[in-house]
Automatic annotation (TrEMBL):
Belongs to the GcvT family. The keyword RNA-binding does not apply. PANTHER family: AMINOMETHYLTRANSFERASE (PTHR43757), AMINOMETHYLTRANSFERASE, MITOCHONDRIAL (PTHR43757:SF2). Substrate binds at E218. GO terms for molecular function: aminomethyltransferase activity; methyltransferase activity; transaminase activity. This is aminomethyltransferase. InterPro entries: GcvT, GcvT/YgfZ/DmdA, GcvT/YgfZ_C, GcvT_C, GCVT_N, TrmE/GcvT-like. SUPFAM superfamilies: Aminomethyltransferase beta-barrel domain, Folate-binding domain. Residues 29-281 form the GCVT N-terminal domain. The keyword Ribosomal protein does not apply. GO terms for biological process: glycine catabolic process; methylation. Residues 305-381 form the Aminomethyltransferase C-terminal domain. One of its GO terms (cellular component) is glycine cleavage complex.
Amino acid sequence: MERPPLMSGNDDIAHIEEELPLQDLPLDGWHRARGARMVGFAGYHMPIQYEGIMAEHVWTREHAGLFDVSHMGQLGFSGEGVDDALEILLPSDIKGLKPFRQRYSMLLDEEGGILDDLMVSRLGDGAFGGADIYMVVNGATKYDDMGWMIEHLPDEVVMNHMDEQALLALQGPEAGEALATLIPETADLIFMQSGLFTWRGVPLWISRSGYTGEDGFEISVPAADAALLADALCALPQVKPIGLGARDSLRLEAGLPLYGHDLTPAVSTIGADLGFAIQKRRREEGGFIGHARVMKELADGPGSKRVGLRIQGRLPAREGAPIFAGGARVGEVTSGGFAPTVGAPIAMGWVSLPHSAIGAALEIEVRGKRIAAEVAQMPFVPHRYRRKA
């Protein structure tokens, strides 16, 4: 989903845009008490790192990291015809979404540009806040998203901004073992499955998902109980608090796009290689906003494509760096940095379709110099989601 505030180096930290006045997350004091370096992002004070981005990245790949993503928007939908209404807004199959399952989807504008990417779940019998559908949208766009949806939803469908909920992400190969220590029933969840659980009398909506490429969970918890849960998790030997800087480097290695950088209203679902989010029935039936562009690009191909890039040497390419094939500029880097697990700089960018094949030789201009790069298969680090019980 959206880009946390930056990865791999203090040079980036200086460029974070602070919006004033900044709000505090429910766990603001908790982060500060643990020595977090706080920065402004998406209108909030956010923890970018505790002991260092590199160390936190490696810990999450080897053990389990706890991320605070409470800035993101949590929305509940209910009312007559909610599935039909959401199938106009989203290109994904909502009617076929089974209880306690979730899907990755997007909001598209009338021209098929991406307004946001998101996760959508069916709650089952109003199990969580009385809603039928639960959605998590990006923090930087959540108010725009809500405005867009209110404009296009019928009066019979009610949207509730669940701003009394915090959101934590527990990620890493030992995340399942750690969470099962507190809530044994979560051991039965598989990737993209969710459920309502109770811990010490606190209701928790938990999905087995995340944005690091590792096994893990996202946990919606009442804001008043977030510190209690965070303390219990970080008391386990597998778990440490991790800042959003490492979340960025982790998701880049996993080949996952972030809204506002790799995804924008200027780019398309098919070019972004996100066609998997549009199931067969929706492609055939259409009826969603932006359908015409999706179908045209499925038939004719997009003009440009999101690709992964492996970079020679040690110099990382950052967002905005131009990409060349010979003397012709063919694209632009949208996110990049040093990848600790890969041990080399990597990037993601958009390039014109003729230069997007795996193995294509390109050059990226960094600090006035051209450095060699190659279009690479993504993810750079294999996903380790728990897909089977």
